[in-house]
Every structure is written in structure tokens, then in C-alpha cells.
Specification:
With 503 residues, the chain is mostly helical. Helix content is 72%, strand content 2%. The strands form two sheets. Strands 1-2 form a two-stranded antiparallel sheet. The chain has a two-stranded antiparallel sheet with strand order 3-4.
């Protein structure tokens, strides 16, 4: 599809409307006297529908729509179906705890449980590394690739040292998306981010469902001729999600992402009460169960029947460009832009919260200028993420690359939370050593620099999701052993104190 004036007009009009509605809603909102509370938790004022909308759109971005559809198989739906379990654990176990301990960041819980600020700072650094080196550049690349494939915006590839030939339009679009996303996060805080997420979510989910229905109609709802392995939910041992991994690392990935990840939980922590937050989380779980699995796999499967295997995550953009009428393609481009911006600005705001609250106030300045400091944190992260876009532009599968790399950080982070909430009298030094060990151990098991390295490790012969479970239990065991024998502390079970009646 070639870019036409009506598409540009519709695209710009919808993008401007979302920004205008967000400004209109936020300008008269009651402000909290606590600058930190206001900027990072919207003054504790988010209603359940904004919690639901922001959680949904913060997660649902181009790495899902573009990356998962780019695999062109039903198996990827397990990421979203399993997410419902993670949301339920957040709703009924972790959110009451965060409110009980009056946390601004999830990592604040660690400081209070271990009685040590250094474990909090270490986990925050891991979150920040994941955000700047994995999630932000992946979002920029995925959005750029979608626009290029949908509107045929490709230019003559240029040679990028260390990466090979890359379409220069990827850099141009990534820069535009990064600047727009940063503007929301820097100037509006969490309130503007959550409100824009919700308005954008209605548009994106509606159009994504329409794309799914139109795609099915294009093949007359007939899946014949599509290979069985692209329709099954039972993954083979050599598939991207072997069925056995659903019972090992998959569960822990979901607990980490939905229950401890600052970018997600920050929305639920910004409600006026636990019940309001829980209503929003349950609404997000309903959306995740009933809508999201269909929109992130069915169009990809249809594209396989129409075009065969489409490389480089271009299947979704190509399909949308072919099946939507001209004016709607402009609207859908605006919806995709909204998804890019909402996820990008959400991660920036959460990252600023982690740096300001967990690191800067602890080690540098207890009373910084919140907005100014957040501005500089965001600027640094935007620049770093742009520099890393070429790496993701050369990967075979966006979503698989993201999930594999994040295993370096996700299980070490989760291990600190599990030990912290289940036990007391654990020396923070034992946990810090275990976390560092976990990062190195997973890297060693994955062996990413081996010849012909892929999602099945070259060193042990297990899928990376299995490796995550192995790594998690290894870190927990090491922390408890070090606590007892190296630091001479007697570990005590304490889950009843943290979770109380909920557990």
C-alpha cells in the first residue's frame, strides 16, 4: 500500500485528538502536594478503568502485535493466556502487600523486607538495564517495522558497522516515536500516561478486532492448507514454546512481569484504594483473556495462508495494508502509534521512578527536583535505546529475542522478591550475591555466543524457559544457604506476616 493524503490526514487527526483529550482530562485534575506521589503515582487517584486501560496498553505494543503475529502461529497465544494467571497473582497477593507497605516502587518492598537499601538499588539497576537495553529499542524497532511494511516506506538499505544492511527508515521512524513518547512521560507524569493509554486502548483494541475479523473474512474463515504446527497449542520440544515449559518457567515469567515489574504494577499502585486497584486489574485480566490472544495470533496465521512465510516480523503490517480500506489504514496507523507511545512513555516514567526513588535519593540527593531529574533520566534512556535499535533490526524474531534476553534479569529480580516476601531474617548480602550469580549463571547456560546459538541452549540442551526455572530455584537455594552458613543467620518462614489473610 502506498501512502496517500487521506491516510496522513486521518492519522494526524486521531493522534491529535488523543493528545487533546488527555490534556483536557488532566489539566483540571486534583494535584497531590507530594511531588513524588503526584508524578509517579498520579497522586493516588487512578480509577479502575484507567488502571485497566493503562495496564493493557502498557503491555500491548508492537512487540505483541508485530512480533507475535510475525511468528505466524497459534502457539504464541500462550504468552497472553498465561498472563491471566500473573494478573490474578498481582490482584490477590501482591497489590495488597504493596499498599500495606505503602510503596512508591515495587523495589521499595525489598528495602523494607531486607532492611537494606542496597538490595533495592541493585534490583532497580536490573530493571533499568532491561528497560533501556531490551524493551525500549524493541518497541521502537517493532513500530517502525510495522509502518514500513504497511505503507511501503522502505528506502535503500545502508550499512551499519557491526550489524550489516539496515533500512534507514527504521532510524527515522524510531527517532520520531521516541521523541513523541518521551514528551508524554516527561511533561505529564503517570496521570497523563495512564489517561492516554486508556483512550488509545479503546481505539487499538477496536481496530485490532476489526483487522482480525477482516482477515478471517479474507480467507472465508477457512484454515485449510495451513500446516498443523501453525494451528496447534501443543508446542513440540523444538518449538518456540514447548508444552512442558508451561509448567516450569512460563509461570514464573508471568509472576515476575505482572506482579513485580514497576512498569506494570505502578498503575495499580496509583489507585485510591486496594479495591479500586483490584477492579482495574481484573478488568485487564478479562481483556487479556477474551480479546488479546485472538488479535496477536489470528492475523499472523491468516497472513501465512495468504503469503506463505513472511520474514523479519513484516507479516502483520503487510496484511493490514492489504485488507483495510484506505481511510481505516490511517486510523490503524494512529492506533499503532498510540500503542508505541503508551508503552514507551510508561517504561520511561517507571524508569524515572526507579532511578529517582531507589538510587538518586538514596545515594546522591534526598530532595531532588523530581521533574528536572526525570527529564534527564528520560533523555539518557531515549538516546541509549535509539543506539540499540540496529541490534533488534537484525534479529529473526522480535518477541523471541526479547523474551530470551530478559531472562538474564527477570528471574534474578523475581528471586529477590520470593525470598523477601516468604522469609525473614535473611541477610541482604546473601541475596545480592545470589542475584549476581543468577545473571551470570543464566548467561552461561544460554551460551549466546556459541556457534549457531538459538533459543535452545548449546551448553545444557534445554529450552530457555526451562533454564529460567532452573536459574530461579538455584538462586533461592544459594541465598538461603549463604544466609545460614556464610552470614550465620537463621532463616524463618514469614509469608503469613506479609500476605496475612490473603494467603
Amino acid at each position: 500500500m502506498d501512502l496517500e493524503p487521506v491516510q496522513i490526514i486521518v492519522f494526524l487527526a486521531i493522534t491529535a485528538l488523543i493528545a487533546a483529550f488527555t490534556y483536557w482530562y488532566c489539566k483540571d485534575a486534583r494535584q497531590s502536594d507530594d511531588g513524588e506521589q503526584e508524578y509517579f503515582l498520579a497522586g493516588g487517584s487512578l480509577k479502575w478503568y484507567f488502571v485497566a486501560g493503562s495496564i493493557t496498553l502498557t503491555n500491548l505494543s508492537t512487540d505483541q502485535l508485530v512480533g507475535m503475529n510475525g511468528n505466524q502461529m497459534a502457539l504464541l497465544a500462550w504468552w497472553e493466556l498465561a498472563a491471566v494467571v500473573g494478573l490474578f497473582i498481582l490482584c490477590f497477593l501482591f497489590i495488597p502487600v504493596y499498599y500495606k507497605y505503602n510503596c512508591t516502587t515495587t523495589t521499595e518492598l525489598l528495602e523494607k523486607r531486607y532492611n537494606n537499601p542496597h538490595i533495592r538499588a541493585l534490583i532497580s539497576v536490573l530493571f533499568l538495564l532491561g528497560n533501556v537495553f531490551i524493551f525500549l529499542p524493541a518497541i521502537l524497532y517493532g513500530g517502525s517495522q510495522f509502518m514500513i511494511s504497511m505503507f511501503g516506506l522502505s528506502a535503500e538499505p545502508v550499512m551499519v558497522p557491526g550489524f550489516g544492511a539496515i533500512d534507514p527508515m527504521i532510524f527515522v521512524l524510531s527517532l520520531i516515536f521516541a521523541l513523541m513518547g518521551a514528551a508524554y512521560a516527561i511533561f505529564g507524569g503517570l496521570r497523563a500516561v495512564a489517561v492516554s493509554d486508556t483512550f488509545s486502548g479503546v481505539l487499538l483494541l477496536g481496530l485490532a478486532l476489526f483487522v482480525t475479523f477482516t482477515a478471517l473474512k479474507a480467507i472465508n474463515f477457512d484454515f485449510s492448507g495451513i500446516p498443523k504446527e501453525r494451528l496447534t497449542l501443543i508446542g513440540a520440544p523444538d518449538s518456540s514454546i514447548p508444552f512442558a515449559t508451561l509448567f516450569t518457567g512460563m509461570l514464573f515469567i508471568q509472576i515476575f512481569y505482572w506482579s513485580t515489574n514497576q512498569t506494570i504494577t505502578q498503575r495499580a499502585m496509583a489507585s485510591p484504594s486496594i479495591k479500586e486497584a483490584q477492579k482495574g486489574i481484573l478488568a485487564a485480566a478479562g481483556i487479556r483473556l477474551l480479546i488479546v490472544p485472538a488479535i496477536i495470533v489470528i492475523p499472523g496465521i491468516v497472513s501465512y495462508k495468504l503469503y506463505g512465510r513472511v520474514e523479519n516480523d513484516m507479516a502483520y503490517g503487510k496484511l493490514v495494508g492489504d485488507i483495510l480500506p484506505t481511510f481505516l489504514s490511517g486510523a490503524f496507523a494512529a492506533a499503532i502509534l498510540a500503542a508505541i507511545l503508551t508503552t514507551f512513555n510508561s517504561i520511561l516514567n517507571a524508569s524515572a521512578a526507579l532511578w529517582v526513588c531507589d538510587i538518586h535519593e538514596t545515594y546522591l540527593n534526598k530532595k531532588p527536583n523530581i521533574k528536572r531529574l526525570s527529564l534527564w533520566v528520560s533523555v539518557v534512556m531515549v538516546i541509549a535505546s535509539l543506539l540499540l535499535v540496529p541490534f533488534f533490526a537484525t534479529q529473526e524474531s522480535l518477541i523471541n529475542t526479547v523474551q530470551t534476553l530478559y531472562g538474564l534479569l527477570s528471574m534474578p529480580i523475581l528471586s529477590a522478591f520470593i525470598v523477601g516476601v516468604l522469609f525473614k531474617n535473611v541477610d541482604a548480602r546473601a541475596m545480592i550475591i545470589s542475584v549476581v550469580f543468577g545473571v551470570l549463571f543464566y548467561f552461561w547456560m544460554l551460551n549466546p555466543f556459541a556457534e549457531n546459538a538459538d533459543l535452545t541452549t548449546q551448553r545444557i540442551g534445554l529450552h530457555y524457559i526451562h533454564l529460567m526455572a532452573i536459574n530461579l530455584f538455584s538462586m533461592i537455594a544459594l541465598a538461603l544457604i549463604l544466609n545460614r552458613y556464610a552470614f550465620k543467620q537463621k532463616t524463618q518462614w514469614d509469608a503469613h506476616t506479609v500476605f496475612g489473610k490473603t494467603l
